[in-house]
Amino acid sequence: MSMTMAADETREARTEAVRALEAEFGELISRFRRIILENANRVSPGMLPGAYKVLTTIVRRESITLSALAETLMSDKGQISRTVRELEQLGLVQRTPDPDDGRSSLLSPTTEGLERLAAARAPQESTLVDALDEWPVDDIRNLTQLLHALTAGESPRS
């Protein structure tokens, strides 16, 4: 077999493997979208997934400015501002003065927001743990490293 044929077969095998990976990511994304929609509705009936993402980002950061939130979510500041107002009206998020910048406010979750989010997440809390129950811990760690490398655009061997 010539070097060109071997290279073509390798390229074809890589393309096929990447397409299979893409299909699996598509299935995973669909599943996560469904979970996010269900969780959003449990936090507040009719809540859109985008508002849920804003809430969970504020909760994860504990305290964040509107500008940093918009940058983190790569979204329009005006849209994020409207969503934050909705979350405030629902009693899920609060604003406090930013001690480092008097012109700015810090967004943080309220106790009610934390409780409602925890209750919304509870039904799926063990889903991933259960799905990986039979996996060796080293395989879970390896998958985590590989996904991080893919997300960061790095080589997994780095």
At CATH's second level, what is the architecture of the largest domain?
A: Orthogonal Bundle
In the CATH hierarchy, the third-tier topology of the largest domain is known as: Arc Repressor Mutant, subunit A
Structural class: mainly alpha
Q: What is the radius of gyration computed over CA atoms, rounded to a whole number of angstroms?
A: 21 Å
The profile of the biggest β sheet is: 3 strands, antiparallel
Strand order of the largest sheet: 1-3-2
Helix content: 55-70%
Question: What's the CATH first level of the largest domain?
Answer: Mainly Alpha
Number of helices: 7
The rough form would be described as elongated
The CATH fourth-level homologous superfamily of the largest domain: Winged helix-like DNA-binding domain superfamily/Winged helix DNA-binding domain
How many structural domains does the protein architecture include? 2
The ordered H/E elements are: HHEHHEEHHH
Q: Span between N and C termini?
A: 33 Å
